[in-house]
Design a protein that fits this description.
67 residues, 3 helices
């Protein structure tokens, strides 16, 4: 796991906003609404708790466990 709790909440909010755009709840019929379907990605990474891009760059937002 490399996605912390605050990061998960932000990803879910962003993902839901993008999906709302895709479904036409935000700026209906702009012609670019299909781009909102990318909102599935942040929602999935939040639910799984792992982000492949973070792995590539060696980033983690999880709090470190004390030894």
């Amino acid at each position: 796991m490399n996605v912390g709790m605050a990061d998960r909440v932000a990803r879910i909010v962003l993902g839901l906003a993008l999906l709302a755009f895709a479904l036409g709840y935000i700026f209906p019929a702009t012609g670019f609404n299909w781009l909102g379907w990318i909102g599935i990605v942040p929602i999935l990474t939040a639910l799984i708790g792992w982000c492949p891009a973070y792995t590539l760059f060696g980033v983690t937002t999880c709090p470190r466990k004390s030894a």
